[in-house]
Amino acid sequence: MAYFINDDCISCGACEPECPEKCITAGADKYVINAECCIDCGTCNSVCPVGAPNPQ
Fold this sequence. Notes:
two-stranded antiparallel sheet
């Protein structure tokens, strides 16, 4: 199961450098997680100030 970033994302970028698999990139309105490489570690959620990354 992979994480996804919901609409609460404020595009702060805190999650991107913390992803050990480099699965997070900046999207048009919010950051995006590539589900194909996400290992479901939850690191993105632990550093997000608004809790936008969630497990699917």
